[in-house]
Amino acid sequence: MLRIDFGQSLLDHSGVLILVQPVGYIGDKRFKAIFDEISTYRTAQVPNTTRTLNLRYSKRVSPQFIEWGNFHFHKRVLGLICVGRCTEISEVEKLEKAINEIKNPFSAILLNTRCFVFGCKSNDESKIRKDFALIRGEDHSEDLQSNLAEFVASLFNVLESKRISKLSEKIDKITLIQAPVEHEVFGGENDSRTSKRKAIGRSKKYTGDLCMLAGLPQEALAQYLIAGEHLRVVNDLLWLAGAMEGQCAASLVMTRTATEKDRKSLILPIECASNSVNLTMNGLGGDVDESKFRNPQALSEDDIVERLSEALKLYNRVKGAAVVETEANLKFTRLLIIYKRRIEASVALQNSLSVNVFLTEQEKIQRYSTAAVLYDELGFKRKAGFFGRIAAMQCVTPQLPHPLWLYSYKFLMGALDGYRISLNEKDVATGVTNGWPALQTRLLNELIFTARRLGDPALAFRHITFLLHTMYAHLSDDERKELCVLLESSAKQCTGSPRSPKSPKETDGQRIDALDMALVPLTKMPLVRSFKVNPLAPHMKPVGNNSAAASGPESAGPFIFSSLRGKVKQSKKSINTTWVCGDIGQVSLDVYNPMPCELRVSQMVLCVEGVEFEPYPTCLSLPPKAGPHAVMLLGIPSSAGPMRVTGYSVTVFGVESTCKLTKENLENKDDFPVIVDVCPSMPLIQVSTTLPKVRCQPPDPDTAQSAPLVTAVTLYAGQSMKGTITLENIGKMPVESLNISVTSKDGEGVDELFSFDEEEIKSKLPVPPGHSTDITVTITGAHRLPQGTESSDNPSYDPAAPWGLTGSIQFRYSTASNNHMSRKVTMAIDVTVVPSLICENYQIIELPSDRSHCLLMFDAVNKTSNDMELSFCVGNCNESNSVEGELTADGSMNIQGNDKNRITMNLPRFALPVSIDHSQGVDTDSQRRAEYKRRVCELVRISWNLPACNASGSGNVENLKLNSSMMQALRPDPVSFGVKINGEEYDNATSSGITISLCSIAELNVQVFNESDEPHGPLVLTIEPYQDQASGCPVTELDGKVAWVGTLQVHTPEVLPGKSFCHSCSLMFLYEGQFKLSISCTETASQQAAPSPQGTGSKSPERTCNSENTDTILKGEIHSLKRSWTYSPSVRVHVV
C-alpha cells in the first residue's frame, strides 16, 4: 500500500489488517494462488458469541502507510503471514532471515507473525519454531484453514487483552495519544484540565478502535460517542473528526445485512470464547454521564451522512491532515454510492481530488485511476474516461524513471467507454458514431502510439484498422493516406498468416494476453452494397417440408382490437434460398472504393459456414473514390445442409480481413440473415388430371413452369365426385415420399371438400424415374353452416345461397436420401357447392305407447328446381358405448322442386354412459347436448337422388338444435325402482302379488336408482296403500285397516348419476282383502322440509304421526312439482 489508501471504505475500520508476503523461492503463480485462497476468509467467528472479526489482507504495505496508525488503529499492520516453500526441515531455517527483514519495519505494531511452509515432506515439527506452520499435501485447504484460524485467534487474544486493559485503565495512568502532525502543534499546551479531557477523549476514541477490531461495533459506537462529548468541549478538531468517523463506521457495521457479509468464514478455537469479556465502561471522567451511552442504537442513514460531512469539514480545518481528509472523502464517496446519492457522491469525490496534499508519482496514478473507477460506479462515464486518460498520461510522465507503457495502455483501454468507443463487434459493425469524433480520434491515436511503444506491431495494426473502420467519416484524405501507409508498414512487421498477424513477441511466447484485441475487419476497403444471393430456377427450386405450415394464415386466432395496444411490428421471416449440392451458386454485389488511393484487392471470396464449400477467388483493382463495380462471387457447395452466408473475405495490404455480412450490405434488408439450404439431388414430377380443367395464371408466382393446371367443379351439397390425378416422374431420382395438401384463400372448407386415400398413396410409392402413377381424389359437396352456430339462426345465413372454394392442391415430393427438402407442384382448384336438401323445423316428442322410442319429425326442403327422390332410415351405431338401436324399415318419398315434405322417424331413446368419476364425464349442459346431437346425427341416414340431373347424394341433420323438451323426450326415464318385501325381490312385471297373513308385519324396502347422465333432486319418495273399488276408483282412506312403522314419505336433496337412495318401513294389515301399494318418486323445484319423525299409526297414507306438518308439506308441493315417476303396476297384497 502507498501512504494514502485510495481503496478504503468505512467498513475497513472493523478490519484487522494482515500483511501476506512471499519468502524463499515460491514463485509468483504459486504465491498468488495461496494468497487468493487465504483472502477468501474475510471473517472469523468467535465461538459461543455473536462477535465476528473482519479480516483484511494486503501484499504490500509501505512504512509511510502506518504513520497514522495511532490515529486510526485499523491502519496498523497487526499480523504478518509469510508464505514459503521447502522440501526439508533444514531449509526452514534459511527463511528466518528473510522473515526478519520483512518484520523489522513493523515490529513495533505487529501482534503476531506466522510463516506457512508448503511442500515439506518431513513430519518432525519439533525442530522448527512455533511461529512456523507446515502445510502438507496437495489438498491443503483444511490444514491451511486450521492454521489460519489459530493465527487469527492469537491476534484476537491480543486485541481482546488490549481492549480489556484499556477499559480498566485508571484516570491517572492515561497518556495523551498524538497524531503525526501534532508533535509541534500541541506540544506546549499547559492547561491541565483541558489536557485531561483531551487525553480521556482520545483514549475513548482509541478504545473504540479496539472494540471495532475485536468485533464489538455497538460497544465501539458507545466509546466514540463518549469521545465526541469530551473532544468537542476542548475543541480537539482532528480527534473529534476521527471519533465522528468512527461513529459512522460502527453504525454501518451494525446495520450491515447478512447478505452483505462474506459466506466463507473462519471458526476460531473454543479458547477464544473464554478470553472474551463483555466489559464495557470504565467511567473515566466525571464531566460526562457515560451511562446514557450504554447500548446505543445505530445512527440512521441521514445521521451518518450528516456526521461524516461534519467530520470532513473538521479535517479541512486541521493543518497537515490532508492524508486522512483524502481518505475520508473517498470513504464518504463510497458510502454515498451505496446509498445511491449520486450527486452528493460526485461532490465528495471532487472534494477528494481538490485536497492539497503532496503525492508521489505513483500516488497520482492511484488517485486518478481511483477517481475513474468511482465515477464509473456513479454512472458518470465521461468523467471516468477523462480521469482514466489522465492516469494513463501520468504513467508515462517524464518524472518517472521508467515509463509504465503497459499500465498506460490498460488505462487508455478502460477510458474507451467514457469516450463512447465500443469494442463490441455488434456496435462496431453498425459503423454509427456516438460521441465526440475529435476526442475519440485523439484517444485512438494515443492507443496506436502506446501500442507501438510497447513494441507490438500486431496490436498497433488492430488499432489502426479500428480507427479506419469507426472514424472513417471524420478523417481527412491526408489522415486516411497516412493511416494506410502506417497500416501497410505495421503489417510488414507482423508475422504469421495474413488472416491472423502476430507480433515478434507473440511468436516467442512472451506476449501478454491482456493486450489481445479482436481484429476489426476492413469493411470499407472496399465498400460492399447490394449483396444478393441468386436463387435457382423457379420450377427447380427445392422447398422445406415445413413450408406448408408456414404458408398458411398468419394467425388462426380471432382479431381483437385494443386502443391501448401499441403498434406491433410484425417480424418478417427471412427469405431462404435453396441451392443443390454440386451446382454452382452465385452471389452478386456492388463494390466501391471510398479511399483517396488505389485499392488493390488481391483476393476476394465468399465466406460461409455449415457445409463444405469451394469458393472461386476474385481479384480487384479499384481506382480512388470510384464505384459501383459489379462483382460476381461464385462457389460450389460440396455437402448438404443449411449454409449460412456469413460475409466475404478480402485481402488488402497483405492482411486478410473477414467481413461479416450486415443489413447495410444487402439490397433487401429483410433478407438478413442470409441462409442457403443446400440439398442433394432431387426428383421432378409432372402433373395431369381427368377432372375438368382450364388454363390460367397459377396462384404461386414462383411455380410458373410447374403448375399450369386449373380445375373447375360444381357439385350439389351432399354429392361426391371422384377424379384421377396422374404423376409422372421425369427426374433422375425416385419419388419415395409424397405429401398432398389442399389450401384455400380464406383457409376454410378444405377438409370438408377434398379427401385422398392415404393407403392408396403409400401403395403407389416409390415412383421410379420415367414412370407414372395415378392418385384418386374425392370431392364432396359439404353442407355449409354458419361458423359458431348450431343452426340457421344466424341472420346473415342464407341456406339457398351457393358457396365455394378457390385454392390449390400441392404435391410435395422427395427422395429418401433428402427427406428434409422437397419439390412442389401445384394444381389450382375452383369448387362451387349449390344447395340440394335442407332439413329444418325439428321436433322430438315422446311415444306414450312405446317408452323405449321417441318420435323425430322435421321438414325436408328440396332447394333444387328438379324432382327429388328421398329415402331415409334409422341406422345402428356400432360403438360399444353408443345407442343399441335396431335398424328400422326404410322410408321414401318424392319431393317436387322447391317444395318440402314432413318426415317422421322413430328413434330409440338412449342415455349417455355414466362415468365412474362424475367430474371426468360430460358434466355441462352444452357438452351433453352436443354429445346427444352427435349420436342423433349418426342414427339418422338420409339419401337423395335427382333423376333429371343424374345426381345423387346424402343429407344430414347437422343443423338440429336440441332444447329441454327434446332432451327429455330423447332420453329414457331417469328414475327406476327396486322393491323388496320381507327380503324378497318383487317384480311387478311378472308377479301377480304377494300373500301375507292377517296382522303380520310386512317389511317393505324401496330403492330408487338414477340411471340418467345428470343429477336429480330434490326427490320425494311416497308409499301409499289403497284399495280399488268396484267402479275402479282407488280408496286411500282405509279407516284403520292398515298400520305402519316408519314414514311413508321421505325426502332426499340430490341423487347423482349412477347412484341411488333406499327407504324401508313396515306395514301391518288389520283386515282381510285385496290391497295395493302405490310407490312414486317426485322431483320438486325447491328443497323441501325434512320428513316428520317416525312413528306408528293407522291414519291415511298421506299422513304420518304429525299429520298437520305433513299436510302443510304436501300442500307446499303442489306448486313446486317438476316431474313424477310411478312404480307401475302397483304392488298387489292379498291378506288372508
Automatic annotation (TrEMBL):
Keywords: Golgi apparatus. Residues 850-971 form the Trs120/TRAPPC9 third Ig-like domain. Its main location: Golgi. Transmembrane segments: none annotated. GO terms for cellular component: trans-Golgi network. Residues 1087-1108 are annotated as: Disordered. Residues 181-254 form the Trs120/TRAPPC9 N-terminal domain. It is found in: Golgi apparatus. Residues 977-1133 form the Trs120/TRAPPC9 fourth Ig-like domain. InterPro entries: Ig_TRAPPC9_Trs120_1st, Ig_TRAPPC9_Trs120_3rd, Ig_TRAPPC9_Trs120_4th, TPR_TRAPPC9_Trs120, Trs120_TRAPPC9, Trs120_TRAPPC9_N. Residues 528-655 form the Trs120/TRAPPC9 first Ig-like domain. Pfam families: Ig_TRAPPC9-Trs120_1st (PF26254), Ig_TRAPPC9-Trs120_3rd (PF26282), Ig_TRAPPC9-Trs120_4th (PF26283), TPR_TRAPPC9-Trs120 (PF26251), TRAPPC9-Trs120 (PF08626). Belongs to the NIBP family. This is Trafficking protein particle complex subunit 9. It comes from Stylophora pistillata.
